[in-house]
Design goal:
7 helices; Rossmann fold
């Protein structure tokens, strides 16, 4: 089981560096999970790219519809909130990203991220060993 964050999931549907590596994660057949928060993050990026003219309305709609379908499970964020806050406080990093890490802990799973800033925050912490980075 892998916890996949939005930085990886968006590479499934957008042509950008690292997209082949991200799509390969789907092809492993390993169950992919994420906190429900991923839906909001993915839709927000689709909206931003739509309004900036980077993608068309049709592609934004496909992103919003298809990305959540890849996951074996989307986990409610309510039960993760206190642990996400603890992790965010310790890392001094936005709580949004820490929900993914809290879920990885709760499910004893690995987190896959393409977010360099987040990975840098995890360097040298106990969470680094639980994290796989997807670099382009």
């Amino acid at each position: 089981m892998l916890v996949v964050d939005a930085s990886v999931a968006l590479k499934w549907v957008l042509d950008e560096p690292g997209d082949r590596e991200a799509r390969a994660i789907i092809e492993t057949g390993e169950p992919l999970i994420a906190p429900e928060l991923i839906v909001a993050e993915v839709v927000n990026v689709a909206w931003r790219r739509l309004t900036s003219g980077e993608i068309a309305a049709r592609q934004a709609a496909v992103i919003a519809a298809e990305v959540p379908r890849v996951f074996a499970e989307l986990v409610a964020i309510g039960p993760l909130r206190m642990r996400a806050l603890e992790i965010a406080t310790e890392l001094r990093h936005p709580a949004y990203d820490c929900f993914y890490l809290a879920l990885a802990e709760a499910k004893d799973a690995r987190l896959v991220t393409a977010d360099r800033r987040f990975a840098q925050r995890l360097a040298g912490t106990p969470w680094q060993a639980r994290t796989t980075t997807l670099w382009s």
